[in-house]
Design goal:
single chain; about 200 residues; mainly alpha; Tetracycline Repressor, domain 2
């Protein structure tokens, strides 16, 4: 029961922080929205800062288990179509998983206030994707599926437009289907340009 209560607090905190930011959300608001008295929170968390840090820890674990990390890199595709399928699967996950969507919104808001949020935003919006696809593209170049080039630069060229389009889905959710089509068209164009003859 205590674990369920703690999870409910963290889930509600993520929802409110992703809408109003850390400074725009207070503990009383979290508790009232859950039907708790404020003192109930102190059995689980000493402060809003502890909720924040615990939430970030959970979000890191959630993302890495489902999407990947330097310790859990995706397998190198055996074909360009397999690369496309892997990319679309990853994009669909990041655009449709509510926890990931709220995490992205939270990091976008809080990257200017909190050093840890800034580092996570850089990792998840830029560096982590580039590192992951550097591994993928290096392997694909070794298999002669992609033209030989600097895999880090190719990964940067691939992931940056996709990341920008994912953020467009957050800002304009009514354009999600259109944006997913643009991502697929971009991926196909990329493969036409970089695919080995």
């Amino acid at each position: 029961m205590a674990k369920d209560t703690k999870e409910r607090i963290l889930t509600k905190a993520l929802e409110l922080f992703s809408q109003k930011g850390y400074d725009g959300t207070n503990i009383k608001e979290i508790m009232v929205s859950l039907g708790f008295v404020k003192t109930a929170m102190y059995r689980h968390f000493e402060s809003k800062e502890e909720i924040w840090n615990t939430l970030l820890d959970r979000l890191i674990d959630y993302y890495e288990e489902r999407f990947g990390s330097p310790e859990h890199l995706p397998p190198v595709p055996e074909s360009l179509e397999e690369l496309l399928a892997m990319t679309i699967r990853m994009v669909n996950f990041t655009v449709h998983d509510e926890t990931v969507v709220m995490t992205r919104k939270l990091l976008t808001i809080e990257q200017f206030r909190d050093d840890r949020a800034r580092a996570l935003a850089t990792k998840h919006f830029l560096n982590g994707l580039t590192e992951m696809f550097t591994h993928v593209f290096s392997g694909m170049m070794d298999k002669e599926l992609l033209c030989r080039d600097d895999p880090a630069m190719v990964a940067f060229a691939y992931t940056t437009p996709i990341s920008a389009l994912i953020h467009l889905c957050d800002r304009e959710p009514e354009k999600t289907n259109e944006t997913l089509d643009r991502i697929e068209a971009f991926c196909r164009h990329f493969m036409k340009v970089y695919g080995a003859s």
